[in-house]
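Re-run with default settings, no changes from the original entry. Doing this only to confirm the output is reproducible before filing.
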Amino acid sequence: MRKVIYIFCLVSFLSAGKEGVGQVSLQGPVCVTGNTTYLYTITGVFDTAHTWALCITGGHIEVSDSSCVSNRQESFVKVSWDSNGIIGALHLTSDSGNADLQVNITTQLTGGTIDENVLIQAVDSADTPAAITCSLPSGGGCSPAYDYQWQRSPDNLQWTDLQGATSSDLEFSNPISESGYYRRRTKTKTSDAKAYTQVAAIFIKR
């Protein structure tokens, strides 16, 4: 399902148009997620005599489902960026001037993958389980930083945080008393985006 995000960003790129007519500007997010719609605002003098045209690289304009629109007077446009892109751009032309805005396209946050060698462990009650190792997460931002939290469940349904288990891998320093399930939650430091690994299981031999 496509999400719609309305974000106003202070970053804009201005370029002068016809001398003496004025300037226009584009404002909106410059770090975006593919397959998501964002709002961009356009400032300038626009009326029936001064309209604008806009072309998109790496996405499409939501209303027209095309890469270009023309003869417009509105002060905004909604753009959906391609999920397989890296760089996108908006190019605005008008009688009041021209403006360009470059956009970096990132992917949705993914939580990483647990090493298949430790997805299922069967250990004696006196033995310490092997560490649960994971690949690194990806996406969720143009220069993302991540927080980790390992969780445990007795039934693979109800999950609780493991105190102090905030590293990329889960190390065990002692034997465990009960069988259980484990997963890593990843959260980006700059948003509420969260993602999880698949579930690892550790069973105590009786």
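DSSP finds no helices and 17 strands in the chain. The mean pLDDT is 87.
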